[in-house]
Amino acid sequence: MDALWSDPKTPVLVVGGEHLSADDDGLVWRSPGDVPEGDRLYLGTVEGVEHAAVMVQRVPEPSRSLRTVAAALPVAQARLAVHAVGVAQWHRTHPRCARCGTPTDVVEGGHVRRCPECGAQHFPRTDPAVIMLITDDADRALLGRRPDWPDNRFSTLAGFVEPGESLEDAVRRETLEETAVEVGEVAYAASQPWPFPSSLMLGFFGRARTTRIAVDGTETADARWFGRDEVTRLTASGELVLPGTLSISRWLIERWHGGLVHGEWR
C-alpha cells in the first residue's frame, strides 16, 4: 500500500459507510495526496491500473450513497464501489477482536484485521440471503410488502439463510413464514452482492404448491399474486411501485414479466 500511496497517479476512492466520493457524473477518484487520512484498502486492478480506497468516518463533498449511483456506473466501476463499501462497512462494525475484545489493526491491504494481543485474524463477513420470485400454476408472481413501506410498494420475498440450512430450504421456509404459501420446485437464477451492510443475495425462482396467503403483519404486511398484465397496468399508473434497477429483485421480476416495467422506488 505504501507504494501505491507514493504514486500520485494511483486512483483513490474515499469511502465511509454507504457513502463514497462521487457526483452526478459517477465516482470521483483522487490522488493519494488529495484524500483525508484513514485506513487504506486495496481494491484491485482495472485495465492494468491498480485502484485503492481510504476509509473515513465522513466522506467530504462531493459524496453520494452507493444506492444512488451504482446502477448508472460501468460494470467495472460498480464492482470496485460495491467492494469498497462492503469492506468499509465491515471495518466500521468490527473494530475489536471477537476473541479477546482488543482493538485490532488493519493489515493485508485492508482485507484483514489482526489482533495485537492474541494474534487472531478476522476477515470480512458475508451473510447469505435468499431472494425469490415465486409463481403459481397460473404463472402469477407472489410479491410482498413490508410494514414500513407505502401501500403501493411491493417486492419479491427474501430472508437470511439459517445455519445448517440449504439455500433451497431457505426459500421454502421464508416463503412459508412470510405468506403461508408452500413452495415445491426451486431453481437458482443469479446472485448479487448487497453491501447494506454485508449480504450476498442469492436469487431463485420457485413454484408454489398452494396459493392461499396469510401474512403475520410483522415481517410482511401484505402479499398478493400479480399477473403480467396487472403488473404492466399498475406500474404504468403508479398504483404499484417495484424495486429499483440496482436490486436483483427488479431483475427477477422483469425476467418473469418478459420485459421492462415502469417506475421504481427511490
From TrEMBL:
It catalyses: a 5'-end NAD(+)-phospho-ribonucleoside in mRNA + H2O = a 5'-end phospho-adenosine-phospho-ribonucleoside in mRNA + beta-nicotinamide D-ribonucleotide + 2 H(+). It is an enzyme of class 3 (hydrolase). Its EC number is 3.6.1.22. PROSITE patterns: NUDIX. GO terms for cellular component: cytosol. One of its GO terms (biological process) is NADP+ catabolic process. Residues 124-254 form the Nudix hydrolase domain. It comes from the Bacteria. The keyword Magnesium applies. PANTHER family: NAD-CAPPED RNA HYDROLASE NUDT12, NUDIX HYDROLASE, NUDC SUBFAMILY. Belongs to the Nudix hydrolase family. NudC subfamily. NCBIfam families: PRK00241.1 (NF001299). This is NAD(+) diphosphatase.
